[in-house]
Amino acid sequence: MILSGAGAPALPALVAASGERAGLRFLEFFAAAIRNPHTRRAYGQAVGTFLAWCEAEAGICALSAVQPLHVATCIEWQTREHAAPTVKLRLAALRHLFDWLVTGQVIPTNPAASVRGPRHSALRGKTPVLDAAEARQLLDRIDATTPAGLRDRALIALMVFSFARVGAALAMRVEDVFTQNRRLWVRLHEKGGKAHAMPCHHTLEAYLQAYLDHTGIAGDPKGPLFRTIGRGTGRLSRTPLPQANAYAMIQRRAAAAGIGTKIGNHTFRATGITAYLRNGGTLENAAAMANHASTRTTQLYDRRRDEISLDEVERIRL
Fold first, then answer.
1. What is the pLDDT of residues 154-178, one digit of tens each?
2. d(C-alpha 64, C-alpha 73), whole Å
3. Can you say how many angstroms the Cα of residue 55 is from the centroid of all Cα atoms in its chain?
4. Which family does it belong to (predicted)?
5. pLDDT by residue (tens digit) across 6-33?
């Protein structure tokens, strides 16, 4: 789906052909029903792909003509092109949209309601993790004599020691690092608008304090905690660090530290949870620290069994 400069979805031809009421309800779905920008983007892509398929492959010219067979055929086609979790998300987007159109009296029934997506059950996450020595190596190799180095070390440590999602970390303001009970705490703004506060590990506390003190941003409590570096100045700007820039930074830092594992923004959340559990932490406390609603989600980040598998593989001796 094509997004306008303001972030609102452009009206697809099939929706426009369904009348003014359908167009308004369609735009309201993305503006009012979907508040999370990442979800809005993912749903927009899913809906855009389906509507384009309807026009090009099924010859449908109005929303009221969409039938369960069309949804099922498109989902089957996508199953051959994409992984099961992706297809399930796209089907969920269609169900949500058509439910919205039904309640708005644009169409009589939801054509996606009876369509079943591919089966998928994950007991182990796919996010690559670092062992404790690699994570320590990465942090130690960062040159902390520059504003960029101080920022990068603090950001990576925050994700490791507080299990923070990169989105929550980058959304922090300077005032979200605060002192309570003579200890530094961090406040993370998680999905659904939930604020989650927790005390800092002593290593994270040292890195955050050094970052705030040596860059001078402590005097700007309402400003973003993690910022871009001004071009040609080497100093922090007042622009929040975008997630894509954080990913690029992590790739550079990993390469400079000689880390061979292909890592990403989410690696550090999984690394921290695995290290915590490996050192005697409980799954229930890990879930609370990660702000997971269920320990089943936390288990996807637990990679302790990787070591067991490797030990068993080495038993194959020829």
1. 999 999 999 999 999 999 999 999 9
2. 17
3. 31
4. Belongs to the 'phage' integrase family.
5. 444 578 999 999 999 999 999 999 999 9
CA gyration radius, the chain:
23
Residue 96 structural domain: 13-103
Is 119 inside any structural domain? no
SS (H, E, C) the chain: CCECCCCCECCCHHHHCCCHHHHHHHHHHHHHHCCCHHHHHHHHHHHHHHHHHHHHCCCCCCHHHCCHHHHHHHHHHHHHHCCHHHHHHHHHHHHHHHHHHHHCCCCCCCCCCCCCCCCCCCCCCCCCCCCHHHHHHHHHCCCCCCHHHHHHHHHHHHHHHCCCCHHHHHCCEHHHEEEECCEEEEEEECHHHCEEEEECCHHHHHHHHHHHHHHCHHHCCCCECCEEECCCCCCEEEEECCHHHHHHHHHHHHHHCCCCCCCCCCHHHHHHHHHHHHCCCCHHHHHHHHCCCCHHHHHCCCCCHHHHHHHHHCCCCC
Question: What pTM, to 2 d.p., does this model score?
Answer: 0.70
CATH code, domain carrying 158: 1.10.443.10
- Report, as an integer, the average pLDDT of 117-143: 82
**Measured between alpha carbons, how far is 99 from 107 in angstroms, rounded to an integer?**
9
Q: Is residue 277 part of a domain?
A: yes
